[in-house]
């Protein structure tokens, strides 16, 4: 979770039931599923986030509604089984990369609703370069994954 006050600690207990029931290897706190919301965000930021997540879904084929959010709970075995040695992404793209690796590795990802509040501390690191990296890498990953499926190399890592 982010340390800028945007992720509420009281939302953390909602991540536990999917782990306890063994229905999840990664739990994403999602702003964009039923029951999730954002508070004190300008409309432009909401449009950027929703649009970015829509693009990620279309480009990569992942069914996740909030691949760019930072409220996440991983099982240790999930992190160990995802192939982290070659992670090069940064910024918000890192969030997409980690979700994609979990999905691609065959791990079960569950989204739970959270309330995301505009940060209390610090300033946004969002920039044109960060947006470009996320768009570019999501496009490349989607192309690579679809090509691998067509050529029969799209097997799960675990």
Q: What's the average pLDDT?
A: 90
Helix content: 40-55%
Q: Which shape, going by the Cα principal axes?
A: globular
Strand order, main sheet: write it out: 3-1-4
Describe it for me?
It is a single chain. The protein has one domain (9-151). Helices cover 41% and strands 12% of the residues. It contains 5 helices and 5 strands, in the order αββαβααββα. α2 packs parallel to α5. The longest helix is centred in the C-terminal third of the chain and has 24 residues, at 128-151. The chain starts with 15 loop residues before the first helix and ends in a 7-residue tail after the last helix.
Characteristics of this structure?
two-stranded parallel sheet, 5 strands, 158 residues, alpha/beta, 5 helices, 41% helix, single chain, globular
What is the compact description of this entry?
The longest helix is centred in the C-terminal third of the chain and has 24 residues, at 128-151. The protein has helices at 16-20, 43-60, 76-80, 93-104, 128-151; strands at 26-30, 37-39, 72-74, 109-113, 115-117. It is an alpha/beta fold and 158 residues long.
């Amino acid at each position: 979770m982010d340390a800028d006050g945007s992720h509420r600690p009281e939302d953390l207990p909602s991540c536990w039931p999917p782990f306890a029931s063994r229905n999840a290897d990664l739990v994403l706190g999602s702003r964009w599923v039923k029951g999730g919301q954002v508070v004190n965000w300008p409309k432009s930021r909401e449009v950027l986030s929703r649009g970015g997540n829509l693009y990620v879904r279309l480009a990569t084929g992942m069914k996740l509604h909030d691949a760019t959010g930072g409220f996440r709970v991983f099982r240790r075995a999930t992190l160990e089984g995802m192939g982290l040695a070659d992670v090069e992404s940064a910024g918000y793209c890192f969030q997409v990369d980690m979700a994609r690796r979990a999905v691609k590795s065959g791990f079960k990802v569950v989204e739970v609703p959270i309330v995301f509040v505009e940060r209390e501390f610090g300033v946004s690191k969002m920039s044109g370069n960060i947006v470009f990296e996320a768009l570019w890498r999501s496009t490349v990953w989607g192309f690579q994954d679809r090509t691998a499926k067509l050529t029969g190399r799209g097997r799960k890592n675990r």
